[in-house]
Design goal:
The protein has 367 residues and is an alpha/beta fold. It contains twelve helices and 13 strands. The chain is globular and about 60 Å long.
Length: 367
């Protein structure tokens, strides 16, 4: 790993600043929710954290959105829209970022990103992923229940819906193994409302060994003995972990359930049965890198009650507990997806160049 932290810093400069500013867009979304419904919304689990929905507090009027999907539709109608053409900046000649290290890492730490989506989300959420963070993966694959050659999206021929996310996940990882195993070193699963800073994922993985049976994500401590990783926050498998799944776990109920249950918990059971270790993804200061909620939720700690029992590290809140090199956030709507990409890769405080931080190495203890 190179010690050229200045080079790394110029590329990463402003990312932490950008995330602080990015909370404004999430705050704006909360404000719009209150304007539409006259109340605040909280996230409540229905069938485990992988099936969370936005459920209102008691006392709403009958016209308030009844679930997260209805809420998103109302926000899209009343809050404007963002299209891919809005992300064309035409300011390339003014950008002088030193991204040499990021380019080197792109070739050294090859990441396949597969995104869980559905036919009705291709034109909105999946398109936002494709136009923002997805283009920074070495390989990007959209997994749906129906093939779409124009987009393109792989048709896994599984049933659609939350009750079949486990089957979708199992078939997706098998497809990735069959078609891309030799092309990449690490294999990330994400949802179409997950936002990923791929460069920060490469940085974390740059000192990990993909030949070891490991995977990383936002660690939940329940259900599975070693814990499992939130599906919405995304989780990444090493080459050896994927090999074991495809050659020993797929269609083998001794290790891996074929369908039903909560997708992320079932994948956790599968990995544990195959001897794949649920490893620590926190940075050198013990701060979180994978996040199962929006940035604002992790900043102000507006967590649902179940989260404190699930999170392995106690459901900490605040920027002091979030890594400067954060990797993922979840529940990111289409407009926020584009906004985050602007904050992370375009917004800069003039005259400030951040020198890189080696957050993969724990600091030495001093007397």
């Amino acid at each position: 790993m190179t010690n050229n932290w200045k080079s790394r810093g110029y590329f990463a400069g402003g990312i932490a600043f950008g995330f602080v500013i990015s909370f404004l867009i999430t705050s704006n979304s909360v404000l719009k929710i209150e304007q539409i419904t006259g109340t605040r919304y909280i996230s409540r689990e229905t069938n485990g954290p992988s099936t969370q929905s936005m459920i209102p507090r008691a006392g709403l009027n009958s016209e308030a959105p009844k679930n997260r999907h209805e809420l998103e539709k109302k926000l899209e109608v009343q809050g404007g829209s963002t299209s891919p053409k809005d992300m064309v900046t035409h300011d390339e000649k003014y950008h002088h970022d030193d991204d040499q290290l990021a380019k080197e890492m792109y070739n050294k730490v090859r990441i396949l990103c597969w995104v869980m989506t559905s036919p009705q989300n291709l034109a909105s959420k999946a398109t936002a992923v494709k136009k923002t963070w997805g283009k920074r993966c070495n390989v990007l694959v959209f997994m749906s229940s129906v093939e779409n050659k124009a987009f393109p999206a792989v048709g896994l021929k599984t049933e659609e819906g939350r009750d079949h996310l486990t089957a979708k996940t199992m078939h997706a990882f098998k497809y990735v193994y069959d078609h891309y195993f030799q092309e990449c070193d690490w294999f990330l699963k994400a949802d179409d409302d997950t936002y990923v800073i791929v460069e920060n994922l490469r940085f974390m993985l740059s000192e990990k060994n993909t030949s070891e049976p490991v995977f990383y994500g936002h660690h939940f401590k329940v259900i599975v003995k070693q814990g499992y990783f939130s599906g919405g926050a995304g989780y990444v498998l090493s080459k050896e972990a994927l090999r074991r799944f495809a050659t020993k776990g797929f269609h083998n109920n001794q290790y891996c359930r074929e369908d039903g249950g909560a997708e992320d918990a079932e994948m956790g059971k599968c990995m544990e049965g195959l001897g794949v270790k649920a490893s620590d993804s926190r940075d050198a200061l013990g701060r979180s890198r994978f996040h199962c909620f929006t940035p604002l939720t992790h900043v102000d700690g507006g967590y649902p009650d179940w989260y404190y029992q699930y999170d392995k590290y106690g459901g900490k809140k605040g920027v002091a507990n979030m890594s400067d090199y954060a990797i993922t956030f979840h529940y990111v709507d289409v407009r926020t997806m584009y906004a985050l990409d602007y904050y992370v890769y375009h917004l800069r405080p003039y005259g400030i160049a951040s020198l890189g931080q080696d957050l993969n190495v724990k600091p030495k203890q001093t007397n």
